[in-house]
């Protein structure tokens, strides 16, 4: 039985990858706590967030300060995202439970999934399954599938945003599931990862008022790395209330008692972020190329 314990990894670097704890993170974590009803919610970080949104979130979690791993099986882990990948596997192996990325918004309880040993969801592009994404993982302690997955990090070689970027986080578990199908329950991409990270699908989440069919969805991964500059960086309760899109409708119940300007950055803070926004857009293009190395974007 998968225990009703939540796990989050955040703050593996002091600059939080340019995405400090914000409205979207608070809303996603609150949606998980309210709808999954965990017995514990662990928040692993090397650098603890600060700011008004973290002040709201912190009472909901148990903070565990960690040192992000710099290597695994003698292989260096240069990028903070891959360090978080290792942390989530090792914490789930030890404790079991539910791991969620901080940009996963939960729509309904996972109760009917707890009877499995390990649960993962498909990630698709253009209707083709490209892997099993590690943004959502459910597992028992010492689950055999996770032990095999962790052991495969002996071949880890990514240096960051390169052709191996999602090798161990998405593609490798998919290959393992073909070899050991009895060790993992695979859900269709509609469970966690629909809409996809394609530009048109991201716009369906953040720009469209046409309701998304959530009949097969437990949660929605919001693809923060791609959506941040345009949709999430300066998000305020006022905008959530005034803009009519799928995302804003989902989030409204999570911020309903907050003033319109809660957590809004000052004018000077917004000015200081503009240059960094351009650099992040460049990194987003690199990220997309890493996800789809053989496709033009």
N- to C-terminal distance: 42 Å
Can you tell me the CATH architecture? Alpha-Beta Complex
Number of strands: 11
* Gross geometry: globular
What structural category do the secondary elements indicate? alpha/beta
Strand order of the largest sheet: 3-2-1-6-9-8-10
Written description of the protein model:
It is a single chain. With about 300 residues, the chain is α/β, with parallel strands linked by helices. The protein has one domain (about 5-290): Alpha-Beta Complex (Spore Coat Polysaccharide Biosynthesis Protein SpsA, Chain A). Helix content is about 35%, strand content about 20%. It is built from 10 helices and 11 strands. The chain has helices at about 25-35, 50-55, 80-95, 145-150, 165-180, 200-205, 225-230, 235-240, 245-250, 265-290, and strands at about 5-10, 40-45, 60-65, 70, 75, 95-100, 105, 120-125, 130-140, 185, 220. The strands form 3 sheets. A 7-stranded mixed β-sheet has the order 3-2-1-6-9-8-10. The longest helix is centred in the C-terminal third of the chain and has 25 residues, at about 265-290.
């Amino acid at each position: 039985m998968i225990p009703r314990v939540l796990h989050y990894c955040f703050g593996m670097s002091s600059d939080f990858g340019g995405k400090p704890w914000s409205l979207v993170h608070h809303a996603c974590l609150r949606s998980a706590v309210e709808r999954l009803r965990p017995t514990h919610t662990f928040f692993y970080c090397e650098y603890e967030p600060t700011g008004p949104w973290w002040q709201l979130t912190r009472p909901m979690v148990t903070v565990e300060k960690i040192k992000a791993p710099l290597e695994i099986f003698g292989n260096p882990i240069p990028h903070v995202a891959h360090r978080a990948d290792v942390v989530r596997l090792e914490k789930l192996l030890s404790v079991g439970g539910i791991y969620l990325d901080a940009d996963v918004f939960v729509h309904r309880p996972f109760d009917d999934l707890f009877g499995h040993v390990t649960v993962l969801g498909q990630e698709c592009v253009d209707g083709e399954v490209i892997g099993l994404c590690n943004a959502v993982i459910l597992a028992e302690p010492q689950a055999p599938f996770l032990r095999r997955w962790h052991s495969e990090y002996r071949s880890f070689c990514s240096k960051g945003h390169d052709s191996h970027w999602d090798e161990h986080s998405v593609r490798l578990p998919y290959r393992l599931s073909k070899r050991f199908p009895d060790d993992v329950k695979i859900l269709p991409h509609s469970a966690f990862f629909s809409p996809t990270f394609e530009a048109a699908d991201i716009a369906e989440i953040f720009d469209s008022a046409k309701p998304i069919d959530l009949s097969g969805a437990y949660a929605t991964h919001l693809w923060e790395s791609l959506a941040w500059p345009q949709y999430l960086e300066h998000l305020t309760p006022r905008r959530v209330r005034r803009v009519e899109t799928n995302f804003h409708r989902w989030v409204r119940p999570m911020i309903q008692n907050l003033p319109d300007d809660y957590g809004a950055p000052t004018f000077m803070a917004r000015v200081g972020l503009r240059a960094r926004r351009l650099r992040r857009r460049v990194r987003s293009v690199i990220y997309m190329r890493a996800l789809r190395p053989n496709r033009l974007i």
